[in-house]
């Protein structure tokens, strides 16, 4: 399995016919289960294309970049029209539908199973993120977020979940077009700098699972809700919450949430 990142950090040097990224934080590797990282230059000077490889993973049928059916969701008419016009400039991309409702995007995806669903995302709307996750779980559908802001908690949730890619709204247009082609081939596309920042908090003592529990707790979810979302027992969720309180030296779960928010961990 291959995850694709875009970024400008680190440097590349040849090794055994491949190019190995130098400068990626080593703690990122075990956190995402990867065993090697290779990199190569994109056509634009200074941009490094990074692949995080899982050598033992089952191969993916990558398909073809010809005839990509895309659905666009954006609740702003002007923005939605601009995205549609940009995508239709590429011969291999066909905009099958353009909608102003996330529920309409979900309904269309369930009925027609397009290749890629592009979802414009402000960065704080949990309902939109949940719809994106539902679409990503459908057979043959890929989900690509176009985010206005990229909080660590959102990047972490998207990357560790089923979302296929995430680009920033202020990225160059070619970045979006490349991302559409790549997720259609079965790759996952994330900005390298954002992903490393989200997954590797050197000053954060919490594990990714503890952070996930804390994030759901911050949204007002009950222990039962969190257990159902993460496929854990309620007792395990309570143990995670207790361990978070202890690790952060907090008085209780509310104090733990305050500490995590002040530190920008969630």
Describe this structure in words.
It is a single chain. The model is unreliable at about 5-65 (pLDDT under 50). It is built from eleven helices and eleven strands. It is elongated, with a radius of gyration of 19 Å. The strands form two sheets. A nine-stranded mixed β-sheet has the order 4-5-1-11-10-9-8-6-7, sandwiched between helices. A two-stranded antiparallel ribbon has the order 2-3. It is an alpha/beta fold and about 270 residues long. α5 links the parallel β9 and β10. Helices cover about 40% and strands about 25% of the residues. It has helices at about 30, 75-85, 100-110, 125-135, 150-160, 175-185, 190-200, 210-220, 225-230, 235-250, 255-260, and strands at about 1-5, 10-15, 20, 35-40, 50-55, 70-75, 95-100, 115-120, 140-145, 165-170, 190. It folds into three domains: about 1-55, no CATH class; about 70-200, Response regulator (Rossmann fold, 3-Layer(aba) Sandwich), CATH 3.40.50; about 210-260, Arc Repressor Mutant, subunit A (Orthogonal Bundle), CATH 1.10.10.10. The longest helix has 15 residues, at about 235-250.
Summarize the structure.
This protein is an alpha/beta fold and 266 residues long. Helices cover 42% and strands 23% of the residues.
């Amino acid at each position: 399995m291959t995850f694709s990142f875009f970024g400008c950090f680190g440097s590349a040097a040849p090794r055994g016919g491949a190019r190995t990224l130098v400068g990626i934080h080593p703690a990122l590797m075990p956190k995402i289960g990867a065993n090697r990282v290779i990199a190569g230059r994109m056509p634009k000077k200074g941009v490094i294309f990074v692949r995080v490889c899982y050598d033992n993973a089952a191969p993916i049928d990558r398909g073809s970049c010809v005839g990509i059916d895309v659905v666009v969701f954006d609740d702003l008419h002007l923005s939605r029209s601009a995205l549609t016009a940009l995508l239709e400039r590429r011969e291999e991309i066909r905009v099958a539908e353009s909608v102003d409702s996330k529920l309409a995007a979900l309904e269309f995806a369930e009925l027609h199973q397009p290749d890629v669903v592009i979802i414009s995302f402000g960065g704080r709307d949990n309902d939109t993120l949940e719809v994106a996750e539902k679409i990503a779980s459908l057979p043959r559908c890929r989900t690509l977020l176009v985010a206005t802001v990229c909080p660590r908690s959102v990047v972490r949730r998207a990357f560790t979940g089923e979302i296929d890619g995430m680009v920033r709204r202020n990225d160059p247009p070619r970045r979006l077009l490349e991302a559409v082609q790549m997720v259609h081939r079965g790759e996952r596309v994330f900005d390298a700098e954002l992903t490393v920042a989200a997954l590797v908090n050197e000053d954060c003592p919490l594990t990714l699972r503890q952070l996930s529990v804390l994030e759901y707790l911050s949204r007002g979810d009950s222990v039962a809700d969190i257990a159902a979302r993460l496929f854990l027992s309620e007792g395990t969720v309570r143990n995670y919450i207790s361990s978070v309180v202890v690790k952060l030296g907090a008085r209780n779960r509310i104090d733990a949430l305050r500490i995590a928010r002040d530190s920008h961990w969630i």
